[in-house]
Amino acid sequence: MATLDVNCRCGAVALKIAGEPIVQLYCHCDDCQTANGAAYARAAIYPAPAVEIVRGEPVATVVRTLERMRCPECATSLFAEIAPAGMRSVNAYLLPKGAFEPQFHVQCQHAVLPVVDDLPHYKGFPPAFGGSEEFVAW
After folding, report:
1. Cα gap 63→66, rounded to integer Å
2. Could you say which of 12, 42, 88, 118 is the most buried, measured as most Cβ atoms within 10 Å of its Cβ?
3. Are 79 and 88 in contact (CB under 8 A)?
4. Ranges in the chain, pLDDT < 50
5. Cα separation, 100 vs 90, whole angstroms
6. Per-residue pLDDT at 138
């Protein structure tokens, strides 16, 4: 089983991530946009027990809907709790270089601008995550 050790920018909070992600994606939802101050977020989603806080005490914030954990010192976004599904969405900018391998884009109905790449661009979510095969045409 693969293990990743990741830290916030200042090193006050450290996470240990065990195993492989369920999925890696770009999220364009308005919650991620607002929480990250960006057009989209890079997310690596794991079962919640796979993401362990091993140093520091992150603080919880809710910008719109999801509870997001941040470093209390440098405010680095660490992960979002997807509690109903038992998952944690780790800020993929924290992963080591080459560890983020996105499979698709989600919530493109909220996209600020088109992102043109070779990945699927779901209007909402793909069927495996409760959505449909509806795509946006960029």
Report:
1. 7
2. 88
3. yes
4. none
5. 11
6. 82
